[in-house]
Structures are given as C-alpha cells and as structure tokens.
Amino acid sequence: QVQLVESGGGLVQPGGSLRLSCAASGSIDSFSYRAWYRQAAGKQREWVADILTSGLTNYANSVKGRFTISRDNAKNRVDLQMNSLNPEETAVYYCFARVSGAEYWGQGTQVTVAS
Q1: Strands 57-59 and 46-51: what pairing?
Q2: Which of 19, 51, 88, 114 sits at a 20 to 30 Å CA gap from 11?
Q3: What is the rounded end-to-end Cα distance, in angstroms, of the chain?
Q4: Separation of alpha carbons 83 and 15, rounded Å
Q5: DSSP class of 31
Q6: Which of 18, 5, 7, 31 lies closest to 63, judged by CA?
Q7: C-alpha to C-alpha distance for 32 and 58, rounded to whole angstroms
Q8: How far is CA 23 from the centre of its chain?
C-alpha cells in the first residue's frame, strides 16, 4: 500500500509563491508516476502537473511557466513550486501517484490566495 501526505498549503497573497510537498511511503519508488491536481470549491478536480518516470514534466496550460513540479527520488517526495498565484487558484491541492497500475491520492492541502 502507498500513503501520500501533502504539506505546505496555506494563505498567500495574490502574486505570491508557495511550495507544496508530497511525501510518499509504502511500496513506491522513483519509477512511479506522480502528479498534482487541484479542486476549487464548486468545481471539478483538475490536473495541474505531472512528472513521468523518465523525469519529463507536463503542465496544464493555465499554470505553465509559473509552476514547477520536481521530485526527490531518494526521499520519494514530489514538490510543486507555485509562483505568481492568483485568487482563482484557491483550491485544495492533491498529490497523486500511480504504482504498478494502482492509483493513490493524498488527503489534500488547502491553498488560499487572497489579500
């Protein structure tokens, strides 16, 4: 089994930055697919970014150029650096992993962008 725990959420001013982390434990390694999603109040959950086993990264158009996903393979941790945040990006951010065909979600961490 795999457990994912997000951290780093909180309140940030518009235009500010925040760094989220996702710690993974269990049967997961550097070859797993990892991703970040977010879900704003009243909205569907949307994909934000991912990082492939090769290290290649992909981003939603809405965040490309502002967000950076990275991974620390030794610690099985995936981070999401978020810059130039705007209030519309207030949401619960979720960590996702696919391991040997099974999919796992973290509990989510709240990010609030407001003055």
Answers
A1: antiparallel
A2: 51
A3: 40
A4: 7
A5: T
A6: 18
A7: 15
A8: 11
